[in-house]
Amino acid sequence: MKALGRFEVPDDLLYSKEHDWLKQVPEGFMVGITDFAQSELGDIAFVDVPDEGSTFKQGDVVLQLESVKAVTDVFVPLSGEIVKTNDAVEDEPQVVNESPYDKGWLFIISADDYPSEKAGLMNATAYVKFIEQNKKD
Fold first, then answer.
1. 108 close to 27: Cβ distance less than 8 angstroms
2. How does DSSP assign 34-102, residue by residue?
3. Is a pLDDT exceeding 90 seen at residue 126?
4. Which of 46, 115, 37, 44 is nearest to 79 (CA)?
5. Residue 8 sits in which domain range?
6. What's the total number of domains in the chain?
7. pTM for the whole structure
8. In a domain, 8, yes or no
């Protein structure tokens, strides 16, 4: 586990520049937002998960998170079909703040083009460096 100030960055995940995390699971990749991202957003009040069976291309807006600070687009980190959603975050959106890497996951995507799209993803060390280089002082 890496630490970036008070933020956790688990070593066993992949990360996108849009502050998504990805974990390989049997159905594809589980996706959520990082601890850093949830902290930047503030208290999340609303999550509208995508419909299972929906397909997206890498970089498409897949859902929106509404927080006390703003409405934020979440971009899909890999192309594919949404095979499962975490409906619990719609009922209890605060779980994204409380448990971003565990109970606060958002969806699982089949990741049809993972071999060709993985180049844009980072390991924990690279993600920490990315945040440090892009932090606003």
1. yes
2. -HHHHHHH-SEEEE-PPPTT-EE-TT-EEEEEEESS-EEEEE-SS-EEEEEE-THHHH-TTHHHH-TTT
3. yes
4. 115
5. 2-131
6. 1
7. 0.92
8. yes
